[in-house]
Amino acid sequence: MNRKVALVCTFAVLVGLLTGCAYKDIDKRFFVTSIGVDYSKNPQKPYHVSLKLAIPSPQVQPGKTNFQVISENADSIAEAVRVMKSKVDKDFDFGHCRVLVFNKAILRKHQAEVLNWFMRRRDIQGIAYMALGEPTAEKVIRVKAKSERLPSNAIILSFDETSNDSPYIIPEILNDFYMRLREEGIDPYLPVIQPLKDTYVINKVVLFKGSRLSKELNRDETRILNELLNTGRRGQINVKQGENEFFVNVESFNTKTKVVIPRNKKPYVNVHIKIDGYIESSDKKIYHNYELLEDQRLASEVISKRVKSTLETIQKTGSDPLGLGLRYQAKHGVSEKNVKKWNKIYPHIHFKVKTDLKLRGTGIMY
Amino acid sequence: MANQQKIVSTLKEQLGNSNDFKIQDIDSFRKKIVLVYIESLIDYKKINKDLIDPLLLCEKEDKYLLHLLSLPPCRQLKTEDNLLSLLIKGNLLIITTDFIFSYDAKKATNNQPGDSAVEMAVLGPQKALSENLSTNINLVRNRYPSEHLIMEQQTVGTMSKTPIALMYDKKLVDHDVLSDVKKRLPEIKMDMIQAIGQLENAMTKKKHHLFPIMMITERPDRIALNLSQGKVIILMHGTPFALIVPAVFFDFMSSMDDTSHTFWTNMLMIGIRYIGLLITLVLPALYIALTSYNPEILRSQLAATIAGSRAGVPYPSFFEVAFMMLAVEMLVESSIRLPKAIGPTATTVGGLILGQAAQQAQLVSSIMIIITAFVAISNFTIPVNPMSFAIRVARYPLILLASFFGMMGVVAGLILLICYLTDKRSFGTPFLRLYRGSSRRIEKITENPKGEKG
């Protein structure tokens, strides 16, 4: 018994003398908060990868965000990251990388390879937001937003529906993008971020046709696409008809899209929009209920017309962000024949838009 | 006459050196009566009232002897009785020419029930047990006035010969448990048993065990409640605590206040206790796992703050946790035994100054201070003391596992802990057996008594 105790004590002392490996603690990691991938114009090393590294501080204050951006040209993203490791003092940790920004050129030329790395990495989260940076991804990454408490947090907050429900922002996450890319009958899109001096603007979206970059939608078209995607982001709708102009503040916005293929008739898409809201501002004075109903009818027509024209614009590009092809497949089965058939139908399909607008009132007025 | 002299002289020989050994000769009825006793054990008032006063009043010897025999604590001794052990137990020997009587005149010490100090209740009864066995039995009998309540007296300890009392309700008691307890008690080979915890350890078969399988309580109301739940109670002379057998894990999480709160208050209190249990067990391990292995689980904001506050700390998170846990354990341990006058000073110096200074000196991160305080406070939410101590110990294996394997180690450690608890038995009762709330249980007992099923 005594010998045992002596032995244990000896070992305890000896263990204390041993050397060992240190931990890779949280403070020995560099948190990459966003990654930007640009085209470098050098065909040998086409990837210009920029990493935004957070410099943590114990006190978090607005506008006191601290970060460092490093960039590298390489022939692959993995290679670029490997080379960049020698430029910093700590190891990269991609566990908190929530923003991935690309520029147009790299997506045109090396789309498949770019996504490959992000999909394979275990530590890149599937909920990372993807965006297109204009003019370059690096410029977007370098933006230091005034309100920002943590690096890249401002972009994350803008994409997050709980903190920003602007109808011009359509967020896209990595998993969803990948699904849309691989799935037949639905096409991906990416929001466009343009850097400003102390902030940035996100109000456009760029469409893809298949896996190729397609047309960019303008601001209003972006909003209508957002509404059709049922993202829950609400805003105001302005209605202008001749002299009369008013705004409708949307309380709830609901769309039902249906692909109808009748026998012996031309196929069409039925879009049924239900809006609840009240008038936010109006040039005209509204005294009577029939005037409100008149406005309601007017607004419905205007909205229907706009939605129809947006859908037609999207149709012309050949892109299908609403997944109408997927709806067709759901009814007619998934086969190569059906996919081909749909590809023939889609460019000529007719859109029937019906809007049920309900104006709850004229707002609170005293 | 010669016999009387002989007995007295033998006793004198055996105990002669002790100063408190007294022999008192009284001449009356033309005979000699000798009173032999140990002064320090004897209640003088009782002797005066019961023995001396009647002696002066009685005219005849027969009458006095009759009076002696009519006293409840007095009995006539036979030759085979061990006079010495009777003396030591606090008896007074009355040696007449023909008979020897023993009279139990023990001075009752510490027989006042004190206020409950270990298991406080806000609304429940406020008095705890006393240190006197017969007072305690009295307290229990008063709280549990049932004709089925059985009391069996025994002694434990080869030298201390501490009297203990086994109490149970013969209709409700689990007979397997009872026979197991009765089997284990005589097997105890220990010289001195003075505390109930000692008895508990002696009765537990495994030498190295962590979680208590018997509950120690100082509350007569808990004893009465547990009697009605068919449990066996062991009271010991000289301690204000009782053992309750068997005890399952969820018993240790119940407080006597649970019966006096309203339903939703009760739910909240019990919920808080279990959350506290989880926090005190897991939080330090979780901190290591999250900062050293899996920071991606945290929100980015929190990860950045932790990284920032840890930036100046030169040691890995494991040392940080070990250092702070050591400080807290020392603080708790020292404040238990400190005199009440110094206690607050120690906690102020230890808790406030040490914590603040350690953080400012960048020995530990500020997040770690919060975790330390949280762990220490939540540990106190566990209402029964031995369980709270056991949980304190149980978090160190988790810390070790977390520092070697990260998040996976924590999860594996928790699974192992649950396996261990599931395997554990308290006198044949599975340790993790689910129990319904105590007050409802009583209602159930009257409908469906356990004793009838065997």
Low-confidence segments of chain A: none
> Main β-sheet of chain A, in a few words?
9 strands, mixed
Task: Write down the overall geometry of chain B.
Answer: elongated
Largest interface: A-B, 25 and 23 residues
Report the biggest beta sheet of chain B as strand number plus sense, adding barrel if it closes. Answer: 5 strands, antiparallel
Describe the structure in your own words:
- Chain A: Residues 204-363 form the Spore germination GerAC-like C-terminal domain.
- Chain A: Keywords: Germination, Lipoprotein, Membrane, Palmitate, Signal.
- Chain A: Its main location: membrane.
- The complex is a heterodimer of chains A (366) and B (454).
- Helix content of chain A is 33%, strand content 30%.
- Chain A is an alpha/beta fold.
- In chain A, the strands form two sheets. In chain A, strands 1, 2, 3, 4, 5, 6, 7, 8 and 9 form a nine-stranded mixed β-sheet that branches.
- The N and C termini of chain A lie far apart (92 Å).
- The model of chain A has no long low-confidence stretch (mean pLDDT 87).
- Chain B has three domains: 2-104, no CATH class; 133-248, no CATH class; 259-430, no CATH class.
- Chain B contains 18 helices and twelve strands.
- Chain B has helices spanning 2-15, 44-57, 61-70, 83-88, 133-143, 175-187, 196-203, 220-228, 249-252, 263-293, 300-310, 317-337, 343-360, 366-379, 385-405, 407-423, 438-447, 450-453, and strands spanning 21-28, 31-38, 74-76, 91-95, 100-104, 149-156, 162-169, 215-217, 232-236, 242-245, 425-426, 429-430.
- In chain B, a hairpin with a 5-residue loop joins β6 (149-156) and β7 (162-169).
- Chain B starts with a helix and ends with a helix.
- Mean pLDDT of chain B is 83; it is low at 436-454.
- Classes of the chains: A alpha/beta (366), B alpha+beta (454).
- The A-B interface holds A 22-27, 29, 31, 33, 54, 56-60, 93, 95-96, 98, 123, 125, 149-150, 153, 156 and B 290-292, 294-296, 300-301, 303-311, 313, 316-318, 366, 403.
